[in-house]
Structure formats: C-alpha cells, structure tokens
Specification:
Layout: H1 8-19, H2 21-38, H3 40-43, E1 50-53, E2 56-58, H4 87-106, H5 113-119, E3 126-128, H6 142-155, H7 159-168, H8 172-180, H9 183-188, H10 198-204, H11 238-274, H12 276-291, H13 294-304, H14 309-320, H15 322-335, H16 339-346, H17 351-359, H18 365-388, H19 399-406, H20 415-443
Antiparallel strand pairs: 1-2, 1-3
Length: 452
C-alpha cells in the first residue's frame, strides 16, 4: 500500500519470507483459521442463519425466536413460548413435508390437490443452517431417543406420525417399512428383533441403517446428524468444540505472548542499557519469580477463585515475560558497546532514540526467534491446565477437556475423541513453528549488519 513506507531492508525481508514457502503458506493457513474462528457463530451454531416462513424472512443468528414463531410442536409439558426453536429439527420437518407433498401429489389416493396442499402448509418454507449445525454447548441425545419416539407412535397405531418421524431424521429404510406396513412383520420376527420393538431391531444388527442408534454418547462421526467428528461424552459436537476451542486457545496465546514479550523486552532492554542498581535490583526480583512454582500458584488461585479467560491471562502474564528478559538484557549489554551506539551518543542522541532507533532493531534476534515458540508454549499451557481441571471452567470449549475425555478408560476405543484434539493441536503447532522458523530466517537483523 502506497501510504505505508517500508525501507529497502524491510522490503527485502518480506520478499525473502514469501520465498520460504512452508512459512508463507503456513501463515496464510493460520490466518484463515483465525478469521474463520472469529466468525464461528456463523459456521457452528444451533441457530439457523436464515428462515423463510410464510413469505417473511428471519435471521435467528441475531434475534431470539420461540417455537411459537414458526408453529413448531414443543416437547411434552412445554409451551411453545417457553423454549427457543429447534432449527435443525424445523429444517427437517419442512423438508419432510415437501417430500410427502410431492409423494401424495403423485399418488393422490382420492385426495384433491387443494386437500393435499392444505395438509402440508409448510412445504414452501425454508431453513438454512450453518455448515456445522451444532452449538458447542448443546447436547444431542437423538441416537438414544429417536427409536423410543417412533415406537410410541407405532404402539399407539399412528403409522403416519411414526413415518414422519423416521422420514424427518433420515431413517429412510425404516420409514419405507412403516409406510408399507411391513414393520409389523419385521418386529414380530424374533430373529430380527429379539425384544419385538425398534430398539431390539437396531441392536439385532439386521438393519444396518439403525446400527448406530439406541446408543448413549459419545457417538461416532455421522453425516446424517452432521456430526462430522462425532460427539463427546455429553453428546456435544466435537467439530464445533474444536473450532471454538481453537479460537479460545489461539487468542489466549496471542494476547499472553504479546503482553509478555512487550513487558519482557522493555524490562530486559532497560536492564542491559542502564545496568547498575536497576539491573541488580530487577534481577533479584526476577530470580524470586523464577523460583515460584507456576502450577501451584494456578491451583491455589483456582481453588479460591473461579478461573476465567482474563484471570488466567493475568496469572500467566506474571511469569510469561521473564524468559525473554535474559536474552534481551544480554543483547543490549553487547550492542550498547558497539561503535554505532557510541557514535550516536557522541552526536548527542537521546536515550530513547538510541534504544528504539539504534539498539532494539539490532537486538530483535531472540525476540523473533522465541516468540513463535512462546505461542506454542502458551497453547500447551492452557491445554494442560484444562486437562488437569484448573483451566477454563466447564462447559467452555477446550482442547484439554476433549483430551481428558479421550483418555478415560471407557472412551479408549472412541478413536475420534483421540484424533480430533491431538490432530488439531499438532496441526496448529506445526504451522506456528514453520512460521517462526521462516520469520527467524527472513528477519534476522544480523544478516544486514555492517560491523564486525
């Protein structure tokens, strides 16, 4: 951009960074992931992005709508004004109406077209859901409930309602059996359903499309319910929790590292440049802080206070800045004895000009080198604290909490619970490390130094 003026050395550094493909493309991928995580409520959310109902448009992402707004039937014992619309269910109910309307129109069975149209008033309504139609806090126990709901309708003799339920939730094979009436013979066959009901049919294994039903969470990845990475032990969508967990982890790490590196660079630079009593006293304070066990401090504070995002940032920032001070102090001690610094002093340059204009640009090697690894360390720290139970409180989306579930004895065979968080952490950390290596190689100030 024309209004940003870069000196020739800086332009060469950026050009060299772009030539290092692994770092440049890693940066683009990571930036894209961060931008997507910012818009996570539009990518992974139980609320619809858009609803077209009776000719009117609604945007539930920005406004609350109860079941009464769309004439949706509430669970038993609830009023339509008490709870929010279940948009995924609403979408499938309207899709089912369109299917049944088209089928009845093709085979009227004595019905007039006007009667068929009146029977399915919602066939022209539409719902557009996010790519992942699950909030990270919403539990989905559909796998354990749907067969009971359909069985209740079958027992009551409501075959049409039972078919609607099966058709609504994509159980096409079961819906066809109910529509044809063959479901009665199938359930009566003890070889197919030992218990004589739908749960027995699912567990009997004779109908593969029902094999994943009648099970409690965690459930395996399922495109039917759009749980692309499965669910956790509470029935919450793993993909949604990974996305929101990434947003929390990366912004936690960036805020913490920026805060720590700025403070550490300032203190370390002043130590090296001023020396004397300031250096002596500040080093004693740093030595005291280094001896404090960080994990114990977090555990004690977590017992006294409810951990929050900013509380953890504040606690960790107390210790985050210390490491970089040692390197910046050493660099500043060495650089301030160079001829260019002595020349600047002889020309009457102020201390601030000497520090910011001459010394800091030549002392950035440790800062550039260690900052990406500090980001990695911050992500690991938050994940570790969440895993141990001293991080962000439940049910906050967390990679550490997913790892904790994956390592439970009863979940050892749930491979998706293991691969999802470990895969996300691995990919994120590899991207950050590649970016750090490339920045270190491209922006190293020593390669442009003119002195011995």
């Amino acid at each position: 951009m024309a209004w940003i003026k870069l000196d020739p050395i800086t332009r060469r550094r950026f050009a060299k960074f772009r030539q290092i493909k692994r770092g440049y493309y890693s940066l683009l991928i990571l930036l894209a992931a961060i931008v997507l995580s910012i818009f996570a409520p539009l990518l992974a959310e139980s609320r619809a992005l858009f609803v077209s109902y009776q000719g009117q448009w609604y945007f539930p992402s920005f406004q609350y709508f109860s079941m009464a707004n769309f004439a949706q039937t509430p669970p038993p014992g609830w009023s339509t004004g008490d709870i929010e619309t279940e948009y995924l269910r609403l979408q499938r109910e309207w899709q089912t109406e369109r299917f049944l309307h088209d089928r009845d129109s093709a085979m009227p069975n004595g019905q007039t077209q006007s009667q068929i149209d009146a029977k399915y008033p919602n066939r022209g309504n539409y719902v557009i859901m996010p790519p992942i139609p699950w909030d990270p806090y919403v539990s989905d126990f559909w796998y354990n409930e749907i067969l009971n709901e359909i069985q209740i309708e079958l027992t009551a003799g409501n075959r049409e309602a039972a078919e609607r339920l099966a058709r609504r939730d994509g159980l096409t094979e079961l819906a066809d059996l109910i529509y044809s009436g063959e479901i009665t013979n199938v359930l009566a066959d003890r070889a197919k359903s030992p218990t004589g009901n739908l749960i027995g049919l699912a567990r009997g294994g004779t109908m593969p499309s029902l094999a994943s039903l009648a099970q409690v969470p965690p459930n395996a990845p399922d495109s039917l319910r759009r749980h692309y990475l499965g669910t956790d032990s509470q029935g919450r969508d793993v993909a949604s929790r990974l996305l929101y967990g990434f947003r929390i982890s990366i912004f936690f790490a960036l805020i913490l590292v920026i805060l720590g590196q700025v403070i550490g660079t300032a203190i370390g630079s002043l130590q090296g440049y001023l020396g004397g009593r300031f250096d002596l006293l500040s080093q004693r304070v740093i030595e005291i802080l280094v001896t404090i066990p960080f994990l114990y401090v977090v555990i004690i504070l977590a017992a006294l206070l409810t951990p929050s995002f900013w509380l953890l940032v504040g606690i960790m920032a107390i210790f985050q800045w210390i490491t970089i001070t040692f390197y910046m102090r050493t660099e500043m001690y060495r650089e301030k004895t160079r001829e260019y610094c002595l020349a600047a002093k002889s020309y009457g340059a102020s201390h601030l000009r000497i520090i910011f204009r001459h010394l800091l640009p030549n002392c950035l090697t440790p800062l550039v080198t260690f900052t990406p690894f500090a980001v990695v360390g911050a992500i690991f720290a938050l994940t570790g604290l969440d895993y141990l139970g001293y991080g962000l409180p439940a049910p906050t989306p967390s990679w550490g909490q997913l790892i904790d579930q994956a390592l439970l004895q009863e979940n050892r065979d749930k491979i998706w619970l293991t691969l999802a968080p470990f895969g996300a952490i691995t990919v994120t950390l590899v991207l950050v490390v590649f970016i750090g290596e490339s920045i270190r190689e491209a922006f190293d100030p020593k390669q442009y130094a003119k002195y011995e």
